[in-house]
Amino acid sequence: xxxxxxxxxxxxxxxxxxxxxxWLAAGTxxxxxxxxxxxxxxxxxxxxALERVNKALAAKPRDPQARFLKGVxxxxxxxxxxxxxIFTKLTQDFPELPEPYNNLAVIYAAQGxxxxxxxxxxxxxxxxxxxxxxxxxxxxxxxKLASQAYDKALQLDKTNTGAQNKLSLVREIARGxxxxxxxxxxxxxxPVTVAQKQPEKPKPVPEKPAPAADATAEILKTVNGWxxxxxxxxxxxxxxxxxxxxxxxxxxxRAAWEKTRRARIGGAKSISVGIGSPKVTMNGPNQATVTFxxxxxxxxxxxxxxxxxxxxxxxxxxxxxxxxxxx
Amino acid sequence: MRLAPLLAAMAxxxxxxxxxxxxxxxxxxxxxAIEANRPGEALKRVDALILDHxxxxxxxxxxxxxxxxxxxxLQTFGNVTKNVPPEKIDGLRAEALARLRALRQRPxxxxxxxxxxxxxxxxxxxxxxxxxxxxxxxxxxxAGRPRLVADYYVTLGKNGIEKTREGDQKTPVxxxxxxxxxxxxxxxxxxxxxxxxxxYPNEWDKRRGRNGHGIWLHGVPSEVYSRPPRASxxxxxxxNSDLDLVARYVQVGTTPVIIADExxxxxxxxxxxxxxxxxxxIEQWRADWQSRxxxxxxxxxxxxxxxxxxxxxxxxxxxxxVNAAKSWIKLGVSRVAMFRYPRERDFVVVxxxxxxxxxxxxxxxxxxxxxxxxxxRWKIIYEGAG
Lengths: 327, 386
What we know:
- The complex is a heterodimer of chains A (about 325) and B (about 375).
- Chain A is α+β, with helices and mostly antiparallel strands.
- Chain A has helices spanning about 10-15, 20-25, 30-40, 45-60, 65-75, 80-95, 100-110, 115-125, 130-155, 210-230, 235-240, 255-265, and strands at about 270-285, 285-300, 300-315, 320-325.
- Chain A folds into 2 domains: about 10-180, Serine Threonine Protein Phosphatase 5, Tetratricopeptide repeat, CATH 1.25.40; about 210-325, Roll (Nuclear Transport Factor 2, Chain: A).
- A 4-stranded antiparallel beta sheet of chain A has the order 1-2-3-4, with helices on both faces.
- The longest helix of chain A has 22 residues, at about 130-155.
- The radius of gyration of chain A is 20 Å and the shape is globular.
- Chain B has a 5-stranded antiparallel beta sheet. In chain B, strands 5-4-3-13-7 form a 5-stranded mixed beta sheet. A 4-stranded mixed beta sheet of chain B has the order 8-9-10-12, with helices on one face.
- The N and C termini of chain B lie far apart (about 60 Å).
């Protein structure tokens, strides 16, 4: 699988994208219901989460976020049939949303129906060409299909297919229609590529010197440095940008995650990572959230997408990545 | 592009699809799409090919690569990631190379195979096996000259060519002909859609002490479309659909099968000069026998001559005695076929109808002679019934 970053289980843990944030922040009753359902789901309390969602759906039966969340809950509960039904219906009612296709694909792949998974993911990407999760999942599905083709070529036993690779289930619709999404979904603007250049002077730096502004500048410098190290495939430098307590995307041990990153980045012949329209939000003196458009391009893979980094200030004063999310 | 390791080296040519594309034509179209950097089209084509020929394992391998290339860069052609015996993949890789090479290296239109000097009128077709290219070429008889009409991928012996011993798993090199037609229903599934035994070991093989038997042209088991280039026990193996096509050309007892290292494509004028030179020698031999000038007649025979039973001395004594007793001899030679013997220098297998008339004895027979060039002169080294 070829992934620009490591977004997979970040999504599993719950993706908070801008649209959703804004929408939830709108503070509607429905938003509250769903936010709680989401928290319950994250806490593993499926049944309670389902009850909340059903409540929300009683008020607004067509709501895509609520239906989507219900599908996710069903998936987690192992109610595959129910989940397929919901996601399929969502693709029909909201064909412009990439997430339901993605999740359908995840379920099909888990069932070993890789051709169906492929079709769904290709549709997901057609819907939203910069949807990184679908690309990533599609990479897995292609690898699986390739493996099956090789088995046929070599007349090998079908049972001998190797480790099951779980695809990333998306938990929430990132840019859902709804009250806020009334703001038209803008086409992805090509982000500025700064990978090969010196990091530009960050624009959003306020004139007045303030501690926060200094921090913002430092943080942007860090993010640019991170993108450069990645682009140069300077693995040690790249990995040094991650904090000791970095939350690995799949919750895997740090060493395992590093190994995967080394293999992926080291395996590429060329990589270029561009950062576009970065936005820094200080969560406190020692924590910040940076969102930006990430333009990833390697010799074999290309993806544009939103990226969120949570950075923390380490005791030695350096900013380091504690969380990394795509979508 | 991502498939670079797969095909960078394979420049390509478009095969002419005469009677609808064969599976091989379609596979080559897949490679062509890859080369043209249209992997999506390539995948579609290979999907369709597999739908029609689910047992074409090489097509599955290519499909695997096309899919994997979407997930990550390929390291090699047949980028199987699983731990499998390498020879399994190597067989398919070799098949891919053989098929592509044969399609790419087409003989020029104005060239003729050096081995076929002359076909006789009843030989409607001749088969030439190019071992290096894993290819069987079918030639039609165009007034005695060969004209290429079709060619097919073939599997040959595991251990290569030039069979000498029973069980050496090699394919013989030489000039043979089809001796029988064994229909599918008389065979196990292993031989596929049929089999055509050839006359290995021939007189020349026997004279050199070569043995073994059961060299056939045959098909493949139903679970495969084709086999790797070097996989048989010495037989010449074709895809069943190809064998069915080849079968239409076979005349039992007549169709020559020449197995060579490679088909040498020569200037037709040179081939014709060769043919004429030997045809002249044969005519002189005929005339000298008919004139009963036994000394001159025997000059056509090599000191190494043998019938398998008589050496040159015994043969000469016998001929002197017989010819001396005749007051006249009339000798007709017709329906002459001449094939150069692969791996031998100036060595030609000649078969013809011999119409012998004399006081007390007349007979018509099919005769076979091996002619070799000794110095500047063609001489007979073997003679027997053909």
